[in-house]
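Chapter summary example: a protein plus iron/sulfur cluster.
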Amino acid sequence: MSVRTRILERIRTALADRPALQLPDVPEPAEVAWEEAYQNFAQRLEGSGAEVVRFGSPQEARGWLSEFAKSFHRAWVSPRVPERLRPDLPEAEPEVAELGVSYAQAAVAETGSVVLASREGRRGQLLVPTQLVWVEAEVLYPSLLAALRAVKGEGGAALGLHSGPSKSADIGQITVKGVHGPGRLVVGVLAFARDTTDRSSAPRDPVQRHDGELKAFRDKLKKLALEGRTLETREGKAFSVRKLSETGKTVYLELGNGAKESLPTAYLEAAVSWILTLHGRHQVGPSELGQAVASQLGLKSSVKASYLWGILHALGYV
Amino acid sequence: MPERIKDFPRASASLIEDHPEVREAVYRATLHFDQNRAKAYAEVPVEAWRDYARDVKAHLLSRLADYLEKAEARLKENGAEVLWADGPEDAHRILAEIVERHGVRRVVKAKSMLTEELGVNAFLEARGLEVYETDLGEFIIQLAKEPPSHIVGPAIHKSLDQVRRLFHEHLGTPTDAEPEALAKAARAFLRERFLTAELGISGANFLVAETGTIALVENEGNIRLTTSVPRVHVAFVGIEKLLPRFDDLAVFLQLLARAATGQPIGTFVSLIQGPKKDDPDGPEALYVVLVDNGRTAALADDEAWEVLRCIRCGACLNVCPVYRQVGGHPYGFVYSGPIGEILAPHFLGVEGAYPLYNASTLCGACGEVCPVRIPIPKLILTWRHRAVDSGLTAPAEPQLIRAYTETMRRPAAYRLASKALRLLPSALASERLPVVRAWTRYRAGLTPSPRPFHELWEELEDERKNANP
Ligand code: SF4
C-alpha cells in the first residue's frame, strides 16, 4: 500500500464516526470609497516603514521620477512598466541594479500591500536594495479579499505581496531593515484616470479580470431567483425577481403593481464589472449606474437602472 | 527526545539560575510580541475572525481526506509534483532522490518547523550537502548549533552581545558591531548562497485546496528568495495546513500576522502556484511533500484533535507565564510553550511527553489569545487526566487529592486541617513528604497565610453586616 493510500485511509477511519462540520462564509469586509482606501493604504505602508507618493497627473509623476532617479546609477525595470513610467537610467540585472521598478498587479488598502506578479521577474523585486512600485488608481482595492479575488489565477506562478521594506528583529529584538529583500520601498500611486489610448500599459481587460467574481455573481443571482425575495429600488419601489430564464440570459421581474418586466443578465454583469473596476466607489446611484451600463452596452435608455440597482443592492454591490 | 523532555523540571530550574540573561531576553521579547498582538487584535473584528477561523479549520479537518485529494489534483494541474510522507524516513528518502536527480550540493532553507520535526538539516548535512538557514534568527541558531526556541522568533533567547560574539567568530564582524552591521554581514554571506544554491527548502503556512496555492509568510524576504532563486523548490506541508478556499486566505493571512507579531500582514507573502512555467525566473521544478508525522493519530483522538487547528503563530508562547520564564529550550521538544505541551503527546505518547503538559499554571491565557480558539487549557487537562490514568504520577498524588477533596467537603475537617497547617508551617516545606517534596524541589516552599481564608471571610461578612444593618 502506498504512503498516500495509507495516510488517506487513516484519515477516513479517524473521521468515520464524526459528522462533517459546516464551512462558514468568508467574512465580507465593509466597503470603503477610493479616497478612504487610499488613506488606509498610505497609512499602513508608512507605518511599516515604506514611503508613499501620490500623483495627480502623469506630468507630476514623470517630474518626480526624473528627480528620484538621480540618486541611482543603474536600474532593473519590469517589462510591465509602461514607457512613460520608466526611469531614465541604464538598465541592469537585478543582482547589480541599485533600483528595481515594478508595476503592481494590485494593491491592498486594508493591509498596505502591493501585489507583484512573478511574470515581471522575481529577482528584480527582491535582490535590489531599493524598490519603486507603481500603483494605478484602479487596482487599489479596499480589502485583501477584494484584491485576492481580482488577482486569483493571474500574474504568473507566484504572486508576491510586499507590505514594507524587508525587516527583522532577530538580533536582540532591535529592528533592522533590508535583511534580504529591499531595505527601501517606495510606492508611487497614480491617482488619475489612466490614458486609455495607451493600450500597451493596460494589463488586462476589466471584464476579463473579474471573471471569478462574475461567476460568483451569477451563482448568487440564481439563488436569489429561487428565493423570490421582495426587493426595493432606490426610490423605494417594491419588486421581486420572479425567475431566471432557462438560458440564464434574462431575469424576469414582478413589479409591486403586478406588472412584469425583464432585464438581460448582460446588463447586470456589465454593471457588476463596472462597479468592481471602481473598487470601493460604492455610493453608486441608479442614474450613474444606468449611464455606465448604457455606455458599456451601447444602450440609450436607462429606465431599467432602478431595478438593476435594486438587485445589486440586495447582493451588496452598491 | 523523551529523555530531554523528562528533564524539563531540572533544565528549567538550572536555566533560571545559571542563565538569567536568557530569562530576561525571552521575557522582553515575548512581552513585546504580546503587547503588539493585543493592540493589533483590537483594530479588527477579532472575535468574529477567530470564530470563523476556528470553524473553517474544524470543517477542513472533518473532511480532510477529500480536501487533500483536491489539493493534490490542483497542485498537479499547476505543474507541481506531489509526494507523501508518513514521517522522517519517507521525507529523507524523498529528499535523497530529489538531491540525486537535480545534482544538488548547496541548499538554502526558509524557516520551517516541520523540517525541524523531520530532522531535514541533519540528514542533508550527513550526506555531505551544505545547508544554510536563511531566516536571520534561524541563521543565528544554526551558527550557535542550537534548535529554535520559539516558533516565530527562533533566536529570541539570544542577547545582542551573544549574537555579536557569534558573528565575530563566524563572519569576522567587530565585537561591538551594531545590529545593522551584523544584519548586513549576514545578508552578504547568505546572498552568495542564495545565488549559488540548487535547492530551496521551505515549509508552508497554508495550502489552498481549491487552487493548489502554497502561501508563505515572512518579514525578511528570505522565503521569497528561497522559493524563487534556486532551480528546485521543495515545500514540506503538514497535512493540517490546508484551507478550503482561496478567499479564506484573506482573513487567515491577517489573523496569523496579528496573532504572531501584531502586524496587519507579514511583510512578504508568497502565493505559489507551481513552478515558473512562462515566468522569466523562478524554480523549474516544484515538489510538494504532504507530511503526516503523527497528525492522523491526533485526528483520530476524539478528545484532543483540536490541536490540529494550530497555525503556528506563537501567540500562546508569548502569553504563557511558564514559557516567559524559561524560553523554549528546556522543553526538549521541537515545539515549546502551551502548543508544545499539547502536541508532544501526539508525537510521543502520553508517557513519552510526560511531564511537559504539567508545565502550565492553567491560567488560561493561551486559550484567550489563540487565533483559532484551540481550547489549550482543556487539552492540557485532558493529557494530565490521561497521565494519572496511565499511572505516571506519584501514587501518593491521587491519594492526597482524594484526602483533600474529603477535607474540603467537611467544614469541621477543613477548619481542623487549616489550624494544623498553621501550627506546623514546616510541614509544607518539608523535603520528606511525597508530592510536597516534588513541588518544593524546584519551587519556593508553600507558606500558609497567617490567617485562614474562612476567618477572613467571616470577618468581612461581619463588617458588611455592620455597615448596612
Ligand atoms: S495553539 Fe493557537 S496560539 Fe498557539 S501557536 Fe497554535 S494557533 Fe497560535
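Key point: Residues B 259, 310-316, 339, 369-372, 374, 376 surround iron/sulfur cluster (CB under 6 Å).
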